[in-house]
């Protein structure tokens, strides 16, 4: 059993998921609201994302846009955590996610890791990026 995040966007899910695929690799599947069977009139012709799944290393990051005409409040109180294979890789991912976004906590050594930082990317997603965890002491 596992838990995988499902995040919501206000019209930019496609751009976000394509950027995440370019950064992390993996396979990306997307379906628009217009592609759903018997789509209601207000959804026909919509290129907003009904559901997307980015699969990387046996895990999934799922996402969607809020339905056409629906306001939403994306990613306000949730962070997506990513542990990179090395400190160098963690720094690269942190820098890429920070482009056009906002650093919440600078990437730095901590008592549990050689590097950890928090960033809000240009799509509004909050990330916690770390190099491999280690036992304190």
Characterize the structure shown:
The chain is of the alpha/beta class and 137 residues long. The chain is built from two helices and eight strands. It has helices at 13-24, 87-98, and strands spanning 6-9, 27-32, 49-56, 59-65, 79-83, 102-108, 116-120, 126-130. It has a four-stranded mixed β-sheet, with helices on one face. The model has no long low-confidence stretch (mean pLDDT 91).
Shape, per Cα inertia axes: elongated
What portion of residues belong to β-strands? 25-35%
Helix content: 10-25%
Mean pLDDT reading: 91
What is the radius of gyration? Answer: 17 Å
pLDDT < 50 stretches: none
N-to-C span:
31 Å
Largest sheet: 4 strands, mixed
Class based on secondary structure composition and strand pairing: alpha/beta
DSSP summary, beta strand count: 8
Tell me the strand order in the biggest sheet. 1-4-3-2
Number of helices: 2
User: Which H/E pattern describes the elements?
Assistant: EHEEEEHEEE
List the main descriptive attributes of the protein structure presented here:
elongated; single chain; four-stranded mixed beta sheet; 2 helices; 137 residues; alpha/beta; 8 strands; 18% helix
Q: How does the SSE layout of this entry go?
A:
Layout (H helix, E strand, L loop, with lengths): L5 E4 L3 H12 L2 E6 L16 E8 L2 E7 L13 E5 L3 H12 L3 E7 L7 E5 L5 E5 L7
Parallel strand pairs: 1-4, 5-8
Antiparallel strand pairs: 2-3, 3-4, 6-7, 7-8
